[in-house]
Amino acid sequence: MSSEERSAGVHYKDEQAFWDAKGRVEYVSLSEFDQQRIRQWVGPLAGDACILDLGGGSGMMGRALGVADMSRIVCIDISLNMLRHSAGLAVQGDALCLPFLDRAFDVVIAAAFLHHVPGLENKVLQECSRVLKPGGKIFGYDPSASCIQNRVFMGRGSLRLKTFSPDEMPVRSTYLRECLETHGFDAGPVRHFSFRNARLTLFEVVQRWIIDPIAVGPLKPYLARWFFWSATRRS
Q: Hey, where are the domains in the chain?
């Protein structure tokens, strides 16, 4: 077994334990405001589209996107507890070796997922490219490695917040674009943003009313905590 495979095995064990604990109740992380703008950025999905929700947990994104026929969504995750809440078809599995046929899906959702597999993004996107039909869409969002806050609070230093799962790390949008292009995707534009949490903690107050108003122009990548990305599978 290679050192990379051993590392991935430890990673999955720790992540699975973390999300199994979260999965004791239905997990919803997006406010109504954020669900609405994600829907706008994604745009309408064809009614007959076959959708893979990668690391989809409780199936939140399928419900947030307003997919009418939930049987068209396959939600794959390592946490069985999270999957118990999914309204779509639930599969416990590994994103590095997806248990699906080539060109099986029209759309892949990777919402807040890639930052949970640091160093393995290329392998995940290679699998996504394999299971997507030519012309198929992939989209997601991840914490930005350009953001100053993320460097401090998601780093490996003493200020790392305990709310983060064991291995999640912010992602460089430029690196992600390179990975997408390498694996047969045409990458779309990146949108930098910060989520608007429904609960008004001190952190949320500072983010919403102090940081967000000045997070414009060239400052935005350094102050906005997340970025939305999308790409199309080449024919």
A: 3-143+172-193+227-233
Q: Which residues contact 224 (CB under 8 A, 6 or more apart)?
A: 144, 147, 192, 193, 194, 212, 215
Q: Tokens representing 61? A: 């994104």
Q: What tens digit of pLDDT does each residue of 77-125 get?
A: 988 888 888 887 899 999 999 999 999 999 999 999 999 999 999 999 9
Q: Find how far residue 190's CA is from the centre of its chain.
A: 14
Residue-wise pLDDT tens digits, 178-226: 999 999 999 999 999 999 987 788 888 999 999 999 999 999 999 999 9
Q: What burial class does residue 77 get, using C-beta atoms within 10 Å of its C-beta: 0-12 exposed, 13-18 middle, 19+ buried?
A: buried
| 25 vs 34: CA distance, rounded Å | 21
To which CATH superfamily is domain 3-143+172-193+227-233 assigned?
A: Vaccinia Virus protein VP39 (3.40.50.150)
DSSP assignment, residue 143? E
Burial 173-206 (b: 16+ CB within 10 A, else e): beebbebbeebbbebbebbbbbbebeeeeeeeee
> Does pTM top 0.90 for this prediction?
no
Residue 23 has pLDDT above 70, yes or no: no
